[in-house]
Amino acid sequence: MGYVGDNKSLEVLLGGLKRLEYRGYDSAGVAVIDADGHLGVRKRSGKLKVLTDDLAADPLGNGATGIGHTRWATHGGPTDANAHPHLGDNGKLALIHNGIIENFYDLKRELLAEGETFTSETDTEVAAILVGREFQKTHDVTESLRRVVARLHGAFTLLVMHEDQPGVVVGARRNSPLVIGLGDGENFLGSDVAAFVEFTQRAVAIGQDQIVTIRPDSVEVTDFIGNPVETEEFEIAWDVSAADKGGWSSFMAKEISEEPEAVANTLRGRAVNGTVHLPELESIGAAVLADIDRIIIIACGTAAYAGMLGKYAIEQWSRIPVEVELSHEFRYRNPIINSRTLVVSISQSGETMDTLMAVKYATANDARVLSICNTQGATIARESHAVVYTHAGPEVAVASTKAFVAQIAALYLLGLHLATVRGTLSAGEIAENVAELVAIPDKIAEVIESAKVIPQLAHWMTDTQSVLFLGRHVGFPVALEGALKLKELAYIHAEGFAAGELKHGPIALIEPGQIVFVVVPSPRGTGSLHPKVVSNIQEIRARGARVIAIAEKGDAAVLPFADEVIPIPLAATLFEPFLAVVPLHVFGMELAAAKGLDVDQPRNLAKSVTVE
Ligand code: F6R
């Protein structure tokens, strides 16, 4: 983040970095120009707290201008030396970077040959040295940065300041995010609005290949050539309290408690009187939507599991074939798409680089792109033909929870909308499904209440080395999501399987004591799913597995075969995942907490993965 204003840059930066820390937490650093005009820099490996403790013990002079950074290491390990800011122009210029400069090695060789020396292994330091060299010629940070970005390849947001130009911070962005916060006598830059929402609700998203210069009383945005560009201000839809922990033990605990509200807010105004309203799709056009012959859903991680659930619902309701693909696999395999393909991207952050690149590829190849996104003004939203926002509120814990259920809600709205415009469901059928959807928030709240047994289970399992998750039909993506949460939060080997696949190999993993979570479909559902899953439970029990079943309240058939049953309320088959996933979110969190791990910031991860 960057700040120019009155003399409190250090407090503003440390407060903003605390809210941005979820984006990366290998190391942190700040640079400020103090009241005497000197550039001071402090950077430390480890979480932000290491830096704040260091600054408390040995303060840096406060001033009116500063930049701050939290890092997720790409080039060079998480050491003090590799932490940002990096310096140029004999320590008078400081620069921070998000992204990867792909041609850094060539540039570094060139600079080494010219006698420059480096103190880090990062790609970023190359940019700091290059901008410093240009400053010696131009004496202007904006012009220097403009000259340098023309030489860089890859993805970058760069922020720069120089002690000879106090009161100025300059940012440039290509592919990585950057947002301006408009204050009164002060202005801000941040990778997202969380950086400055404590001080202002007024924001401006910076477009692709643009440069911004902030001063306390002005903001100037140009393209990389220097031509002024029009910007559009937006109001941040949430306030600082939404990004605070508010008495909860972790952001994740808070965000799981907000799952009912996340779904309700996503449905608000869109599921009304038994019908679905998605005016956002007008920018694609009813005629185009009526004509599409294929849907490809692209996403990563948890969002991709939401996408898998979307496939079940959209195909069932609209009869349009749907494929679900990981964004990074889709992008680089020459996929078959054309103007009759609707590509649906799903991203909480709206900044996941893998998904952004896939979206760009799809638009460049004539597909219509609709994005489901949780972050206002995010790059993916801006690059798409239409966007349906999930209104889950800011998600801070690295592991996605409330955004996941909101994504499913948005996908189901899309499925019902398509079924309406294509006439594949009657008005009565649409109304029935809408009624199921609007009943979901209260049912999720019921599950959260009844999931109280889970902390106990988690405490018993702190020494467990491996946990398996089984599900069938819509229970399969839920099983995958349960396994992902356990891997990333509790660092336990976990796998999710389609229950029917077990006998084709994975059943060899079952030995006495193996813990298996089974997502059991409703006995009232169609397609004899229930008896098949009950048989799968018997098969693994016969081989010594300990079974924890997530099953509909009153499902007597599972009781004799399960070591533990976690009951969920009644819902139609397609809607069960909203409920079955909640105990798995709670379990991942509780097991990590029981092992003494950092629930909100698991090792090696970052909330928003802005590199490919
Ligand atoms: C897992 C998790 C990740 C994200 C994935 C996509 O708990 O949070 O798998 O779902 O990195 O992120 P977004 O939705 O921001 O594109």
Strand content: 15-25%
CATH-scheme architecture of the largest domain: 4-Layer Sandwich
Strand order of the largest sheet: 3-2-4-1-10-9-11-14
Tell me the number of strands.
26
Approximate shape = globular
Protein topology:
Layout: E1 2-4, H1 9-20, E2 27-34, E3 39-45, H2 48-57, E4 63-71, E5 86-88, E6 93-101, H3 104-113, H4 124-138, H5 141-149, E7 154-162, E8 169-174, E9 179-182, E10 187-190, E11 202-205, E12 210-215, E13 218-223, E14 233-235, H6 251-257, H7 259-267, E15 271-272, E16 275-276, H8 286-291, E17 294-299, H9 301-318, E18 322-326, H10 327-331, E19 341-347, H11 353-364, E20 368-373, H12 379-383, E21 386-389, H13 402-422, H14 427-450, H15 453-460, E22 466-471, H16 475-490, E23 493-498, E24 515-519, H17 529-541, E25 546-552, E26 564-568, H18 576-594
Parallel strand pairs: 17-18, 17-19, 19-20, 20-21, 22-23, 22-24, 24-25, 25-26
Antiparallel strand pairs: 1-4, 1-10, 2-3, 2-4, 5-6, 6-7, 7-8, 8-12, 9-10, 9-11, 11-14, 12-13, 15-16
Helix pairs in contact: 3-4, 4-5, 7-13, 7-14, 9-13, 9-16, 13-14, 14-18, 15-18, 16-18
Bound molecules: fructose -6-phosphate.
Descriptive terms for the model:
Glutamine Phosphoribosylpyrophosphate, subunit 1, domain 1, 612 residues, alpha/beta, Rossmann fold, 6-stranded antiparallel β-sheet, globular, 26 strands, 3 domains, binds fructose -6-phosphate
